[in-house]
Structure formats: C-alpha cells, structure tokens
Amino acid sequence: MTAAAREVRATSSQRATADQVREILIVDDHPLMCDALALTLKISFGLKNVRTARSLAAALEQIRTQGAPDAVILDLNLPDARGAEGIVTLRRQLPDVPITMISADLEGAMISAAMAAGAQGYISKSLSREALVDSLRRMWEGEHVTPEGYEPSQDSAEDEARAELARRFSSLTPQQMKILRLICQGKANKEISYELSIAEATVKTHITAIMSKINARRRTQAVLLANSIRLFEAG
Predict the structure, then answer these.
(1) CA 112 to chain centre
(2) 192 vs 16, which has greater pLDDT?
(3) On the CB side of 76, how many CA atoms lie within 13 Å of its CA?
(4) What are the domain boundaries of the chain?
(5) What interhelical angle do 3-15 and 156-170 show, nearest 10?
(6) Cα(226)–Cα(221) distance, rounded to whole angstroms?
(7) In angstroms, what CA-CA distances link 43 with 36, 38, 142, 204?
(8) What would the pLDDT profile of 97-112 be if each residue is shown by its tens digit?
(9) Above 60 in pLDDT, residue 21?
(10) Quick one: which of 21, 31, 170, 209 could link to 70 by a disulfide (CB 3.0–4.6 Å)?
C-alpha cells in the first residue's frame, strides 16, 4: 500500500465509525439485489433511509442533488460502467467516503485493480447476510476487506504505480472519460464525434487533454494504461 493510500484511508477511518454511517448509497442495476441489500442494511444497521441508483450516471446525479452519502456499495458491472471506472469516477466526487465493490467476479487481478483505484474493500455477492454485515462493519471502521483466498501483491512499487495511475484517470472529466472509453473500443475521432454529437475539433481538444492528464503520448499507450487497471472492462 502506498503512503498516499494509507493517508487517504486513515483519513477515511478517522472520519467516521460504523455506528456513524447513517446514509448509504447502493449502486446496482439489479432491482432484486438492490432491494434485498437495502433491506438487509436497514435491519442490520438500523438505517431509516438507504439510497439506491441503477447506474453510475444516476449515482453521480444523486450525489449532486442530495449530497454525499456516508458510504457507497458499488456493483462491478453497471450499464454505463464496467471494471474500475465506477470507483475511479466516484473517488473524484467522494474522496473520503468508503466505497465497497461488490461482485460475483472474484478474479485476483480485478480485486487488485479495484483496491488500487481506491476501494475500501471488495466483497462477493454470494456472502451470507451475517458475513456481509460483518464485512461492511469492518470496512466502515477503517479496515480493508477482500475475499478469502485473495493474495495481494507484495510489490509496493507496483501498488504505488497502480494507485498513481488511478489518480490520474480520476482527474478526467465525465466527457473525457466517455471519449477515452470510445478510444479503448477502437473508435476513430470521426466516429467519436458522431456518437457524442460534438465537433471533431472538440474531440481532438479533449484527447489532447486526456493524454496530458494520464501522461500518454499515443492512443495505443492510453489504451494500454486503461487496460492495465481494468478501467473499462472487468475481465
């Protein structure tokens, strides 16, 4: 873990304890899963209100209009965000709020990418109610929880490089993130211009800004950097 990451996480743990987490935002596009999780949290933690959003865009709009929650539970795969993008984007809006990634995908590389991007923890959707509640409580007390059997990297330099790269990507604006996603899909500037209904010159301006922010010289390098932290794809 990097010194910067330890500092951010220490700040998060000092900010609140599990008992002080009173408002939670669940971001998951599966209605049954979302409703069941909300009910579980209300009962287990005595919460009166649990906010829900079905997409990353809806979550960002809620944060804009209703303010920051005390904690976020984020699905790995959303209609408008896959992989680490959700965490990277939310980290920019919620620097001190614990974000828990929840998924059925327990691949080690994905867990590492999520933790490097700033997740407080990563938990399986198949956990029992008791294990889920215990994991969340520990995270909200400042602990970092990952699935049993997960072996984090012992290379601190690699961890630091991943975390730094995630911070660079978090500096992108929503429009720049959309353009980068399309670049990673192999779209040319003209196609991006058409898809986003903006001038091709504007696309070029955004790409120049993207390259500067993530310290990439070519489109291929930008794609490789995004892929290295699983920014847009879970696997």
Answers:
(1) 12
(2) 192
(3) 21
(4) 23-141, 172-229
(5) 70
(6) 9
(7) 11, 9, 22, 51
(8) 999 999 998 998 899 9
(9) yes
(10) 21
Question: In CATH, what class is 23-141?
Answer: alpha beta
Strands 77-78 and 24-27: unpaired
The model's pTM: 0.83
Structure tokens at 108: 């080690």
Residue 14's alpha-carbon distances to 93, 106, 134, 142, in angstroms, are 19, 29, 19, 8
Tokens 């696997």 locate to 235
Exposure string of 18-52, with b = 16+ CB inside 10 Å and e = fewer, is beebeebbbbbbeeeebeebbeebeeebeeeebbb
Q: Read off φ and ψ for residue 47, nearest 5 degrees.
A: -85, 140
Residue 166: both structure tokens together: 């995630």
Would you say residue 222 has pLDDT above 90? yes
Provide CATH code, domain 172-229. 1.10.10.10
